[in-house]
Amino acid sequence: MADETERATVAGGCFWCVEAAFEHVDGVQEVTSGYAGGHVAEPSYEAVCREETGHAEAVQVVYDPDTVEYADLLEVLFAIHDPTTLNREGPDVGSQYRSAVFYHDEDQREAVEAYVEALETEGGYDDPIVTEIEPLDGFYEAEEEHQNYFEKHPNDAYCRINARPKVEKVRERFATATAEGD
């Protein structure tokens, strides 16, 4: 285990789904649902949903860089959502559901820019990638009822239809030791 952890902050649709997927990545120690990229301090879920704050539903991932690299987290993010749809993921529509990476430092900025450029060069998507890349200027933890939502409500219809396939994709493609005991 690393003496120090690092943080990544990303958005790719409903934070319930993104949080649930990242919780199954080996080396991820904590995932917190919240809001990033807006212009209001301490936004509420209701205000974010009404698109009054400019925030995206985002997750902040605390990870052990000796186990999982930042580039691996980017790979997970781009595998679990469609980065070519503007302000939409699945059934969720609005700027709060946008695709975004909020970098914490210049190394992360360079890494995400290179990653997106490589994806564009490879031509893996039919449409251009619209993922926003911007510096993290505050992360506001979402209300308690939104934390670990999939874990608390695995049989909720939204979770079964939208979150579970993302979790299964991560377990199949990315998880190693974390799948044990799940």
Which features characterize this protein?
182 residues; alpha+beta; Peptide Methionine Sulfoxide Reductase, Chain A; 6-stranded mixed beta sheet; two-stranded antiparallel sheet; 34% helix; globular; disordered C terminus
Describe the structure.
With 182 residues, the chain is an alpha+beta fold. It has one domain: Peptide methionine sulphoxide reductase MsrA (Peptide Methionine Sulfoxide Reductase, Chain A, 2-Layer Sandwich). The protein contains six helices and eight strands. It has helices at residues 15-22, 45-49, 70-80, 106-122, 149-152, 157-173, and strands at 6-12, 28-36, 56-63, 88-89, 92-93, 99-103, 132-135, 139-141. It has a six-stranded mixed β-sheet, covered by helices on one side. It has a two-stranded antiparallel ribbon with strand order 4-5. Helix 1 (15-22) runs parallel beside helix 6 (157-173) and helix 3 packs across helix 4 (106-122). The longest helix has 17 residues, at 106-122. It starts with 5 loop residues before the first strand and ends in a 9-residue tail after the last helix. The relative contact order is 0.24. Mean pLDDT is 93; it is low at 177-182.
